[in-house]
Sequence to fold (394 residues):
Amino acid sequence: MTTPPASASRLRLLPMRPRDPHEPHRVASSLELFFDLVFVVAVSIASVELHHSLQHGEVVSGIASYAVVFFGIWWAWMNFTWFATSFATDDWLYRVLTIVQMGGVLVLASGIKPFFEEHDPTILVFAYVVMRLALGAQWLRASRGVDATRRATTLTYAGGILAVQALWLASLLLPGGIRPWAILVLIAAELAVPVIAERRGTTPWHPHHITERYGLFTLIVLGESLLASANAIIESVHESESLAPLIGIAALTLIVTAALWWIYFWPPHHVAIGSLRSSLRYGYGHYVIFASAAALSAGIELEIDVITGKSAIPAPWASFAYTIPVAVFILGVWVLAIRRCRDAVVNVVVPVGALLVLIDPIVPVPIALTAVILIVVVAVLVWRAPYAWPDERE
Fold:
């Protein structure tokens, strides 16, 4: 029988001490990777429902529902990620509370369709509250193993999370006409909790670890979009009179996802977070990066619907469903990570390339032009990549 460490309690619990923000060779744990995979289920369903809304011409309603659903997915993921970089202990209680959050994600996924179709947030809210309460319990536990300054921070996190979850549950009692405005207020309250808590005393985040976690989730959402798009193309082979358009879309999908991967991982992300302000900008700004990457497959599928005659949105307007996510993704990465390189050529080519992709639908050959633009952007990044990045810390 294995003897627990001397620092462990009788319940085999380890003290939840702050992690060293300069810990060498810090990498994502297997639990964190498992956690990410569960979130893919919710991301995939949200993308599918966005596609269905766009397919039936429900553009405004579909985008609004997607934005709210993806906020719940992203916010739960992000809060766990930043907590784990500072306080992960990996004992059994930490794992159980993490798995509870994973269960909440799966329940949330089951509530996405009712929210899109009936605007019923009941399942979403209950599942979201379960995830957030589990993380609130983690913060309460962390408050026992820190000094006085960080105890104020951890208790502020816990108190803020618990208070906002009570408001989420109360929002279910509001009339349907008022509820959308209440959701916006509660989202603002959620975003405010880390800002208020970190001003009491910053938590010890690990720059390399946190940016690795963001990079891994970016790979997951890009991979999900690539898979969903490929499945849609394969299913449409027997419904299209000509294979040429589908081959063109298949080539576009591969080029776009490869280019987005290249652009995202071109700069060293860990230098983008240091101060509280820059860390909040980096963390919050990834909402648009993740959401746009996950929405890409919906745009590709809508383009296929145009070819097979299933879309209520005609060409060329349907093409905006994939050019907007691509442009938003590129601009988001440029603002958060690339712009710091201070290279005049890159800082012109990348945003201009994103804007050119955005207006592709008004050009007679949008698919071919999108591919050309992205190839040019990647080629410029290869050309302008320095041998050693300035300000890069080992």
User: Anything to note?
Assistant: The CA atoms of residues 327 and 354 lie 5 Å apart. The chain has two domains: 30-200, 207-384.
